[in-house]
């Protein structure tokens, strides 16, 4: 960060390393096809080799931004806000989410769950990663479990994760984009045999939108 004072503000969640913010259509999971304003926060050390936003990993690349500015931009566009990353829970989300809620906005998060849960959320999408597992306490709060399927071994991981979430959690299997042609037939077959699961696709990439 630029100096120690700014670093302290970032650690408190009063400023956040903002990578990008944009209004678009949700492309994945339960809310696919709905309009939402995305806030992408920089910083992630989970390190998925197939991550399609690796530029988000290093928070130093993204300017510390006052949350007041982020909130003002968000409320212009949509009633639904999606906070993603990077890994947004790297930072304290309390101040940002309370500010968004004060403006009557619905707030979703997409997270690996690898850090303590902070913030006020209307929808929690957990996308767990083998290399840095979710904190145990997050599972009871999850509304949506989205497991990325890169190879056939990921089905076992998906089932292990599904055993930990609450009974009302929506369950999704999503092919990793680079292997989608190979894995979609296997996912289709798996879901037909295990219909508690649904298929999530990165429809925004098919539609060629952000």
Automatic annotation (TrEMBL):
EC number from the UniProt entry: 4.3.99.3
A biological process term (GO) from this entry: tRNA queuosine(34) biosynthetic process
Residues annotated to bind [4Fe-4S] cluster: 44, 48, 51
Residues the entry annotates as binding substrate: 25-27, 40, 84, 210
Catalysed conversion reaction: 6-carboxy-5,6,7,8-tetrahydropterin + H(+) = 7-carboxy-7-carbaguanine + NH4(+)
UniProt GO molecular function: 4 iron, 4 sulfur cluster binding; carbon-nitrogen lyase activity; magnesium ion binding; S-adenosyl-L-methionine binding
Binding site for S-adenosyl-L-methionine: 50-52, 86, 127-129
Residue ranges constituting the Radical SAM core domain according to the UniProt record: 31-210
Pathway(s) of this molecule: Purine metabolism; 7-cyano-7-deazaguanine biosynthesis
Cofactor binding: number and manner: Binds 1 [4Fe-4S] cluster. The cluster is coordinated with 3 cysteines and an exchangeable S-adenosyl-L-methionine. Binds 1 S-adenosyl-L-methionine per subunit.
Assembly mode: Homodimer.
Function text: Catalyzes the complex heterocyclic radical-mediated conversion of 6-carboxy-5,6,7,8-tetrahydropterin (CPH4) to 7-carboxy-7-deazaguanine (CDG), a step common to the biosynthetic pathways of all 7-deazapurine-containing compounds.
Protein name per Swiss-Prot or TrEMBL: 7-carboxy-7-deazaguanine synthase
Species annotation: Psychroflexus sediminis
